[in-house]
Amino acid sequence: MAEITLAKKAGFCFGVNRAINIIEELVEKGERVATLGPIIHNQQVIDDLSKKGVIVVDEPSQVPEGTTLVLRTHGVTQEILKEVEKCGCNYIDAACPFVKKIHKIVLDNSSENTVTLIAGDENHPEVKGIKSCAKGEAFVINSEEKLTELFQQYPDLPQKPIIFVSQTTFSVKEWEKSLKKVNLLCTNAKIFGTICSATDERQSEAAQLSKVNDAMVIVGGRHSSNTQKLLGVCQSNCPSFLVETADELSGIDFSQYKAIGLTAGASTPAGIIKEVLQTMSEIVKDPTMIEEEKVLDSAAAEDFDFAAALEESLSNMSDQKVTGTVLSVSPTEIQVDIGRKQTGYIPYSEYSNDPSADPRAELKIGDTLNLIIMKTNDQEGLIMLSKKRYDAIAAWDTVVAAEGTDTILEGVVTEVVRGGVIVVSNNARLFIPASLATASRNDKLEDLVKKTVKFKVIEVNKQRRRAVGSIRAVLKEERKAAEEKFWAEVKEGEVRKGVVKSLMKFGAFVDIGGVDGMIHVSELSWNRIKDPSEVVSVGDEVEVTIKSLNPEKKQIALGYKKLEDNPWEIFKSKYAVDSVAEVEIANFTDFGAFAHIVPGVDGLIHISQIANKHVAKPADVLKIGEKVEAKITEIDEERKRVSLSIRALLPVEEVAEEAVAEEAPAEAEEVATEE
């Protein structure tokens, strides 16, 4: 009587399971299906699919019209893929995601000058597909010895740029040995560990089992690479036997073994594993057969018909945390493998608290998700899962740990509620009171919605699962740090960008990076203004000049007026003495009229320069708002004054006549004086 131990990691890997599920779903829909070569290396699976109407073709041209072609899990060569696309048939690529990853690595990293080294079986379809992606030379080796022979045959090879990858099911032990050789001899090698996790796990477990058991039985197809690797691993430690079905067990003498280990290749269906296990138990007359718990935890036992045990195990799953591998993403749900008998499903409503999240855009086949089991008691034993609830629990743990500490968390403000706002941080909801939500009470809570904010956790109620945070606490710290940095670096005369925070009658306050400065109303414009709102508004981004600093009082005077906007500079750029300008009469005095030349610069037209005749009052000749031409007769830069003359532009003859008329009495007076 011998004890039998079943490996926990045995049977279908997720890549194989995905491919089989794809085909079975197509068959269930009533579609005609063909596979390009055997979908996996297991004849029993192929025979079962054949009974369901699935045919195997050798070339894309052999696909019957109206039939969906499924590409094998091992992947295909680039040439065959082009043929498939060229033939125009409807096809689904069921290649293992790990295999597709290797294709991408080689395609992205190889060139005509690059040598691609592939550790694997040269005749295996997976290796042929990988080799077809190489743009330069490519060599396949199956051991460290073959690698050494290759370097001896091509002595200059180690000096060339090299990419080193492996078949997904390559021997972990041989890969490690080959890796040492490559690292020793090659200075230009890019090494990519491409043995899939399922292979690594199965080989590691097989190695452990073969060390503690007297014999090992490996179940799987003889043409299966991963099955052959398992056999090799086990044979190095104890007598090992490869069987494809339970019928082959009759040729093995188990009487000399007291402890027997059982494992299976990644392409071996659970039904065959079950049959082999039951047959072995009968042969060795092991009444306990195998611990029921081990069976249920084994991926290979997914199809066991232990209804009662299954129901019992499922009933205890609620609220359990599990890890799932994405198998497919439909428009309504995500299908995942969690290592249980039944496939798990995540409804879109349980994917994320973020309404904009799109699983089809965010997920790919093979991705790993952390999940919570929600429901397990339906008639079909369907396992309903939730990602958002797992995320919420994990996030809540983070929130609890952050309470009362200096830990700063991030979240998105989702809505304004009575008394404050709601922040969602990795699916955990927190309340931020209005008094702690903004830097100033004048800031609007609505402006925070959909924005990412930083906050501290100030209070947690674990029983009610409620938490209160403070955005202001973080803003206060950031402002303090900004202030210290500002005063350490700032210099008068610097130009900085800022945001107008508030307006007063005497000026505008501007945030220039965590520090407020003031622009006096006189510094806002070259023109005379009555209120700062004539120039700027709250929220405006402005460029200011540091005019003066008072570090002790923390006062900063800012300038906003630009030199190029100085009206006097604009005037000088356009006009000079003797220039003629069109001016607008602005106001009157007893001694003349003031007129606008350019915005911000006025000139004086003396009463004697208004007309050719005597003018008692400027209003007798001119009107406010009237536009006239005037000659610039004088510019006093120091006093910023301009003298204008209308009279200087009048016709010469008119001036002469007027002059004669005005000079006659003077001459007469002079003559009279002489007499």
Determine the oligomeric state from the structure: single chain
By secondary-structure content and strand pairing, the structural class works out as alpha/beta
User: Approximately what portion of the residues adopt beta-strand conformation?
Assistant: 25-35%
Q: What best-fitting shape do the alpha-carbon axes yield? A: elongated
Rounded radius of gyration (Å)? 44 Å
Sheet with most strands: strand arrangement: 13-14-15-17-16
Tell me how many strands there are: 32
Question: For the record, what is the CATH homologous superfamily label of the largest domain?
Answer: 4-hydroxy-3-methylbut-2-enyl diphosphate reductase, catalytic domain
Spatial separation of the terminal alpha carbons: 165 Å
CATH class of the largest domain: Alpha Beta
Helical percentage = 25-40%
Tell me the domain tally. 6
The number of helical runs is 17
* CATH architecture classification of the largest domain: 3-Layer(aba) Sandwich
What is the mean predicted local confidence, pLDDT?
Answer: 82
Major sheet summary line: 5 strands, mixed, barrel
Strand and helix layout:
Layout: E1 3-6, H1 14-28, E2 32-36, H2 43-51, E3 55-57, E4 67-71, H3 78-87, E5 91-93, H4 97-109, E6 115-119, H5 125-132, E7 138-141, H6 144-153, E8 162-166, H7 172-185, E9 189-191, H8 197-212, E10 215-219, H9 225-235, E11 240-243, E12 259-264, H10 270-284, H11 292-297, H12 307-315, E13 321-329, E14 333-337, E15 344-347, H13 359-362, E16 368-375, E17 383-386, H14 387-402, E18 409-417, E19 420-425, E20 428-433, E21 452-461, E22 466-470, H15 471-489, E23 495-504, E24 507-511, E25 516-520, E26 541-550, E27 555-559, H16 567-574, E28 580-589, E29 592-598, E30 601-606, E31 627-636, E32 641-645, H17 652-674
Parallel strand pairs: 1-12, 2-3, 2-4, 4-5, 6-7, 6-8, 8-9, 10-11, 10-12, 15-17, 25-27, 30-32
Antiparallel strand pairs: 13-14, 13-16, 14-15, 16-17, 18-19, 18-21, 19-20, 21-22, 23-24, 23-26, 24-25, 26-27, 28-29, 28-31, 29-30, 31-32
Helix pairs in contact: 4-5, 6-7, 8-9
